[in-house]
């Protein structure tokens, strides 16, 4: 169905966790520091770090450091993985719509 199954698998695996989904929602508003995300999600810094590492490894987020403090990590969303996922979902919806339309025609006795 999709030409990028490994990327979609990584994206879906990263989004399987509710904390990571909430982090993505927060990052969709604007880039944020790791500490700010941890506070918003009520997670310890080590737990947030593990979630951010998963999001970074999946390609959903990118990490930068401000010039004034290399200890601070700022996270921002990358659009590409979500674009690939959206295309995959559109393809799946199209396939299911066609299958359901064919089933409806079959049940109603119309032309196949």
UniProtKB/TrEMBL annotation:
Pfam families: HTH_5. Residues 1-100 form the HTH arsR-type domain. Gene3D superfamilies: Winged helix-like DNA-binding domain superfamily/Winged helix DNA-binding domain. InterPro entries: ArsR-like_HTH (IPR011991), HTH_ArsR_DNA-bd_dom (IPR001845), WH-like_DNA-bd_sf (IPR036388), WH_DNA-bd_sf (IPR036390). GO terms for molecular function: DNA-binding transcription factor activity. This is Transcriptional regulator. It comes from Phenylobacterium hankyongense. The lineage of its organism: Bacteria, Pseudomonadati, Pseudomonadota, Alphaproteobacteria, Caulobacterales.
């Amino acid at each position: 169905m999709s030409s990028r199954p490994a990327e979609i698998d990584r994206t879906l695996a990263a989004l399987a966790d509710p904390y990571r989904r909430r982090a993505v929602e927060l990052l969709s508003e604007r880039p944020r520091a790791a500490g700010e995300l941890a506070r918003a999600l009520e997670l310890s810094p080590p737990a947030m770090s593990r979630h951010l590492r998963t999001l970074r490894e999946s390609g959903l987020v990118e990490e930068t450091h401000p010039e004034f403090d290399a200890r601070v990590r700022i996270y921002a969303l990358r659009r590409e993985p979500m674009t690939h996922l959206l295309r995959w979902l559109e393809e799946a919806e199209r396939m299911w719509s066609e299958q359901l339309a064919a089933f409806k025609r079959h049940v109603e006795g119309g032309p196949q």
